[in-house]
Amino acid sequence: MKNQTLCVLGGTGFVGRHLVTRLANRGHRIKVLTRYPQRHREIEVLPDTTLIGADVHDPTVLAEHFAGCDAVVNLVGILHEYPSQSFRTVHAELPGKVVEACRAVGVKRLLHMSALHADAAKGPSQYLFTKGEGERVVTQAQDLAVTCFKPSIIFGPDDNFYNQFANMLRFSLVLPLACPNARFAPVYVGDVAQAFEVALENDATIGQSYELCGPRVYTFKELVEDIARMLGLKRLVVGLPDSLARLQAKVLGLLPVKVFTTDNYLSLQVDSVCSCNGLEALGITPCSVESIMPTHFAGKTQRRRYDHLRRAARRD
Ligand SMILES: NC(=O)c1ccc[n+]([C@@H]2O[C@H](COP(=O)([O-])OP(=O)(O)OC[C@H]3O[C@@H](n4cnc5c(N)ncnc54)[C@H](OP(=O)(O)O)[C@@H]3O)[C@@H](O)[C@H]2O)c1
Fold first, then answer.
1. Rounded to 5 degrees, what are φ and ψ at 90?
2. Is the Cβ atom of 76 under 6 angstroms away from ligand 1?
3. Tens digit of pLDDT for each residue in 243-292?
4. Would the CB of 19 count as within 6 Å of ligand 1?
């Protein structure tokens, strides 16, 4: 099961970089398809890893690159829609094209990244609804050997979520927070990557969907307050009532660069908590936020920054 030839879509993103590094070091040969090869040259230093500029939405391009592969991994996903990319195109139509391209060139094995509580029947957001549609397309492909992953929010030193809130907390004494009671069970990116690796090497995972969660559940407010604590900052996190949370989502959603939209608000209406944590079934002990993130943020506290500036000014 080692030394497989794999084609990874979304291999340049946060999860993708961890997964591709892990699989390359494990001895697999990997093709990473990306829209922007010039931005991700560092991936090419990994053993037996090729970065390929490709339009992954073109079925012929997919088939061309899938040919000769033992398995395909699809990690492509977005949190915000822009005129150039819709949830439907990325989460629902692309998985359909991936399935067809696998069939066209005889690739049997497919690992698919969905999201916790993705639901093609109930949504409630377009993100979760279209993720559910994509999941349905791949799991209904009975002629393929599919494994599906449904993580809660994923954390790691280079993540978007924790680092985005860390940046907000650095620049505001008071942080107005929508949906403060929404619950998450953040899962470590290394554990998510390991789950994919285990699945690739174990046929018992074929036909399974795994929810992936960390060991502890936090409310959104607790989680943001913890980030402030890890940064050594005294900040006031104020939970917004529902009407103001909707308004905040509407107003921020109008900005050209999206940080929080009405669709994100709707996703937060469902607790991102596992009913059955697939990490255990895969033999993986989940890492806690407390074992990873304080070390990462320790180098970024105010005091450390002053120390750094003092050193830079040669004052100590
Ligand atoms: N991070 C989380 O907390 C979390 C939680 C649950 C589920 N997930 C799912 O896990 C997957 C990976 O998440 P991530 O955090 O690693 O995301 P990410 O860092 O934003 O990376 C997204 C990847 O998808 C590709 N991509 C983005 N938009 C695309 C488009 N319109 N067409 C084609 N490719 C596109 C990007 O490739 P190029 O730009 O190189 O082409 C990139 O490699 C996603 O499916 C996401 O929904 C993530």
1. -80, -45
2. yes
3. 999 999 999 999 999 999 999 999 999 999 999 999 999 999 999 999 99
4. no
Nearest atom in ligand 1 to 113's CA: 45
**Mean per-residue pLDDT of the chain:** 95
Ligand 1: residue whose CA is nearest its atom 26: 76
Q: What's the structural domain count of the chain?
A: 1
Instruction: Tell me how far apart the alpha carbons of residues 190 and 197 are, in angstroms, rounded to a whole number.
Output: 10
Establish if 171 belongs to a structural domain.
Answer: no
* Residue 10 domain boundaries: 5-154+186-212
Query: In this model, does residue 85 exceed pLDDT 70?
Result: yes
For residue 183, pLDDT over 90 is answered with: yes
- Cα-to-centroid distance, 116 and ligand 1 (Å): 15
Q: Is the distance from the beta carbon of residue 156 to the nearest atom of ligand 1 less than 6 Å?
A: no
What tokens does 230 get?
A: 């890890």
Strand ordering across the sheet containing 49-53: 49-53, 29-34, 5-9, 71-74, 109-113, 145-151, 209-212
Euclidean distance between CA atoms 133 and 91, whole angstroms: 7
pLDDT confidence of residue 314: 67
If you ran DSSP here, which 8-state letter would residue 283 be given?
T
Tell whether 266 is covered by a domain. Answer: no
Question: Is 112 part of any domain?
Answer: yes
Whether pTM > 0.85 for this model: the answer is yes
Q: Is the CB of 153 under 6 A from ligand 1?
A: yes
| Average of per-residue pLDDT across 196-206 | 97
**Domain membership flag for residue 197:** yes
Q: Specify the CATH number for the domain of residue 103.
A: 3.40.50.720
Reported confidence tier of residue 301, pLDDT bands at 50, 70, 90? low
CB-ligand 1 contact for 35 (6 Å cutoff): yes
